[in-house]
Amino acid sequence: MRVILAGYNVDSTVIDELKKNSPGRGDVTPETLSASYARISRDPRSVDQLRSAARAEVKKARRSNQTIIFKMGHHSVAEHAVFNFDVIGMSRLAIEKIEKFRLCSYTEKSQRYIKLKDDFVVPQEIKKSGKTQDFIKVIREQNRQYQKLYEKLRPYFYQKYPDMALDKKKQSVLDGWAKEDARYIVSLATEGQLGMTINARNLELMIRRFSSKKLEELKEFNQKIYTLAKEVAPSIILFTEPNDFDGKTYQELRDLKEASDLTKPGKSNPVCLVDSTPDADIKVVAAFLHTVSGGSFQHCLQRARGLSDEKRKKVIKTALYYMEFFDAVPREFEYVDLTFDLIVSATCFAQLKRHRMATLTSQKYNPEVGVTIPPSVKEVGCEHGFMDVIQKTDQVYMELKDCMETGAEYVLTNAHQRRVLLKMNAREFYHFSRLREDATAQWEIRRLAQQMSEQAKKVMPLTMMLIGGKDQYPEIYKSVFGRSPKLKPP
Q1: How many Å apart are CA 419 and CA 344, to the nearest integer?
Q2: CA–CA separation, 46 vs 257, rounded Å?
Q3: Class of the 85-256 domain?
Q4: Domain definitions of the chain by residue range
Q5: What is the pLDDT of residue 119?
Q6: Cβ count near 474 (within 10 Å)
Q7: 3-class DSSP state of 445
Q8: pLDDT, tens only, 371-383
Q9: CB count, 10 Å around CB of 206?
Q10: Which terminus of the chain has fewer CB atoms gathered within 10 Å of its CB, N or C?
Q11: For residues 378 and 373, what is the distance between their CA atoms, to the nearest angstrom?
Q12: Roughly how many angstroms between the first and final C-alpha of the chain, as a whole number?
């Protein structure tokens, strides 16, 4: 056996310096990896020899990419070419739309850990609307309120948790709580930044999708990433033109008569389990029986239905007996699903969307849905000032909406709510619960996750027997198995 490190991410500045200090060469491109890996299925040479050949003949490698990816339809080959992008000075709203692409990696500037200043984007749509001064005025009022809230919340948390306040290592936690609750009043126009890692296949999809978007900030971003990637790897990013599927589908759905009487947000429970797999516990048991036996799934399902509740419980307990707090539950849990209709703030949505293995669709932010006010804001007596800024924000939003086709939502705050539809299989739901019900999780998404778990346990009690936050895992495990797990969360 030979295992060769074929390549890895290198800072572009290092690449530029290497190119500057060495003879000119044209093989500094991820296309050679795509081309060489594409040949593995039909060329008997070893992979390292294929890479060597691709580096020696870059033009030929590019032609090969175009043929294999675009004529023969093997698009997965483009996934071997990976790009890293620094995205700086972009609005919170636009970043949210970028991070909708699931098969990419993002690390974003956190409004929980970094104290915000008066940095915000003034979008082209606002400038063209003639409402720039109204927009800037209310954004700056939001930002002043943020500073006031932070100055009141910081001592509030220090006084509420005196033991933590005496521990220098935990003071940053208290400071972070003040920042994360104060940020509810800042706008979706607030500047952010992120690091993005994306393979060429998903980059092409992103460019094509964004080419049909109307938001000017996304158009500018789209042109920049396309230009940068095309210069380095022209043979693997080709289908980038706007199309009717991306540009017209949802607007035409909105125009349908069937949707016309649903424009007003209906009242409902903010956390509602609207669908789940029938007989979920039985199907999970059947999936385990299928994995470890030679029977068909239909036969295993019939066997699982015939078992007593106690015997079905024994199957699932056996599957989970050796699991530690860091382990994912077995893949058989993916055969059952939970679907929730949720109402969440923009703050909460920013965390919810990070669960990229889930299915998440959302409505637009809408002041009529309401706002989320952090309990701490009420406890320090700032609710009136908070809501005064919200009311001014809503007024400017309505003025912007009346004169703009898109972009009015930039002025809305992290407190403003939207309705989302979220589907997770049971395995992903365990991951969600471990992370978001943990004591270190942000309070709003922790409250949301707790309510979701309570509803999930009602429809699939056996499957959800170990559900809960990471910090609670030892206690939950002991209640099920009568002993503690070997390892405890740090």
Answers
A1: 6
A2: 60
A3: alpha beta
A4: 12-80, 85-256
A5: 93
A6: 16
A7: helix
A8: 999 999 999 999 9
A9: 22
A10: N
A11: 8
A12: 38
